[in-house]
Design a protein that fits this description.
Blueprint: H1 4-12, E1 17-18, E2 40-42, H2 47-60, E3 64-67, E4 84-87, E5 94-98, E6 103-107, H3 112-121, E7 124-125, H4 138-144, H5 151-154, E8 161-167, E9 173-177, H6 189-193, E10 202-209, E11 211-212, E12 216-224, H7 227-239, E13 246-250, H8 252-258, E14 272-280, H9 282-297, E15 302-304, H10 309-320, H11 322-330, E16 332-339, H12 345-358, E17 363-368, E18 373-380, H13 385-404, H14 429-442
Parallel strand pairs: 2-4, 3-4
Antiparallel strand pairs: 1-2, 5-6, 6-10, 7-11, 8-9, 8-10, 12-14, 12-15, 13-14, 13-17, 16-18, 17-18
Bound molecules: flavin-adenine dinucleotide (FAD).
Flavin-adenine dinucleotide (FAD) binds next to strand 3, helix 4, strand 10 and helix 11.
Length: 457
């Protein structure tokens, strides 16, 4: 019988199919124990080629794991049942760029950073900014409904997608929405594919909504000796109605670990850090930045206001690298992305440390404070099974806390494989049934990204 790679070469040609390398079987999940397995890695060059692969696999019940940039933090792009890793890396065409109408249509494999640069070069702004933008792809951002610091003002990726082209498990191509800003004609299947983590369809292209680029974006950084003082300052910003574009926090332990490279001085033992940003016309941004400085000064030991382009870029580059700096400390981390109503942020920050201490784990957290999104993190050394087991137990307590406070087990990274079954904590059985029925309706044979985004464990 013909091997899977040989059959796929017959469909797509020699160059589009190969044996996956080790890195192409992983994402950024780290040390979670998923055993990756795939028989072939394919990189189709067009929607029609994606359709050919899916039709072939759909007919034979062969598993397909869609893959973007592989920067996901939930194990979503890790193939677990053999079959095909379907990479969108060659689908990078810009199908339409219409700055005068504030929109563009790009293929799924274009990187996030490239998409943002294209918008910027045309005087426009594509706000979603998950932290690994040079590697992550628009298709991956849509499939995870990625957030990022500026989701506080502008919303997560899905808020910027007006249309999708996608290929179903049957190989049929569908288009939902398009270059239109409103559409209530049918059930919102576009929204259903947003955040579906490759389990319902393969996204091949998207129409994106843009806005005129703000003239200025001015961050304010404040440091606090006590976490509680920093949390109180965040509450003060919100309560005063200051419309920051981003409202981030890093607890003192995170700042101590990542201090090297921070463009400014921080105490060696760290300090709770708030990063807020004001944007708009230069006059608006300056006025708001001044108000943020004033609000954040309450209880702060230091307030910094970087102003030159180089200083602002250095600050956000440092912020993007925090996750990697924390991972580097012991070589690994179990990092979750629970989300709670804003008033419980302080409790979630404190609970991360308290749960960590109880399980004898080094713990820290940072995240998108304005969205109540806490990257609660336990440090582990790869291969240290005892610490890993304690970290797994600790994360269960975090999930329980988030749900008990009306939050969610995932604010932006998704369930993927690492949080499979955790939805059952927060949804009623009837809602879980609907979740499973949606999967069956899109993918009756279960070929798309098996074992991912499971509602029940
Ligand atoms: C340093 C760092 C910082 C990060 N910061 C953030 C952050 O601030 N906010 C945030 O939300 N995330 C963040 N992430 C997580 C990650 O970058 C995002 O989830 C990103 O959207 C994943 O995109 P990707 O292209 O790498 O997708 P992948 O990791 O390749 O895939 C993610 C999931 O999407 C599916 N998928 C990918 N492409 C497609 C497609 N075309 N069609 C259908 N399914 C597809 C995969 O099957 C998988 O389930 C961060 C990651 C790192 C490493």
């Amino acid at each position: 019988m013909e091997s899977l790679p040989a059959a796929l070469r017959g469909l797509l040609g020699q160059d589009a199919v190969r044996t996956p390398g080790a890195a192409e079987l992983q994402d950024e999940t780290e040390v979670r124990g998923a055993v990756a397995r795939a028989d072939a890695y394919v990189a189709p060059g067009s929607t029609e080629e994606v359709a050919r692969v899916l039709a072939w696999c759909g007919e034979r019940g062969v598993a397909v794991t869609p893959r973007g940039g592989g920067t996901g933090l939930a194990g979503g792009a890790v193939p677990l049942e053999g079959g095909v890793v379907l990479s969108l890396e060659r689908m990078t065409a810009v199908r339409a760029l219409e700055p005068e109408r504030w929109r563009m249509c790009v293929e799924a494999g274009l990187t996030t950073a490239h998409t943002k640069r294209l918008a910027r070069e045309n005087g426009l702004y594509f706000p979603p900014d998950p932290g690994a933008g040079e590697q992550s792809q628009i298709g991956g951002n849509i499939a995870t409904n990625a957030g990022g610091p500026h989701a506080f003002k502008y919303g997560a990726t899905g808020a910027w997608v007006t249309g999708l082209e996608a290929v179903l498990a049957s190989g049929e191509v569908i288009t939902l929405g398009g270059a239109i800003r409103k559409d209530v004609a049918g059930y919102d299947l576009r929204a259903l594919l947003v955040g579906s983590e490759g389990t319902l369809a393969v996204i091949t292209a998207a129409w994106l909504r843009l806005v005129p680029a703000p003239e200025a974006a001015l961050p304010v950084v404040a440091l606090y000796g006590e976490d509680a003082a920093g949390v109180a300052a965040l509450e003060g910003v919100l309560a005063s109605g200051l419309a920051a574009a981003a409202l981030e926090y890093l607890d003192a332990r995170t700042v101590a670990i990542a201090a090297h490279g921070f463009p400014g001085a921080v105490p060696a033992e760290g300090a709770f850090m708030v990063i807020a940003e004001a944007d708009g016309s230069r006059a608006e941004a300056e006025r708001l930045a001044g108000e943020l400085e004033e609000a954040l000064a309450e209880g702060a030991s230091t307030v910094l206001a970087p102003r030159s382009r180089a200083e602002v870029d250095a600050l956000w580059r440092w912020r993007d690298g925090v996750s990697l700096a924390v991972k580097a400390k012991l070589g690994g981390k179990i990092s979750e992305d629970i989300v709670v109503p804003f008033e419980h942020l302080g409790e979630a920050v404190a609970a991360t440390l308290e749960i960590g201490a109880r399980h004898r784990l080094e713990a820290c957290s940072w995240g998108h404070a304005g969205d109540g999104n806490v990257h609660a993190t336990f440090l582990v050394s790869p291969g240290d099974d005892d610490t890993l087991a304690r970290a797994q137990a600790a994360r269960e307590e975090l999930f329980a806390l988030a749900v008990a406070r009306g939050g969610s087990v995932s604010g932006e990274h998704g369930l993927g494989w690492v949080k499979r079954g955790q939805l059952a904590r927060q949804w009623a059985p009837a809602a879980l049934d609907l979740h499973e029925a949606v999967k069956r309706a899109f993918d009756p044979r279960g070929i798309l990204n098996p074992q991912k985004k499971l509602a029940r464990g």
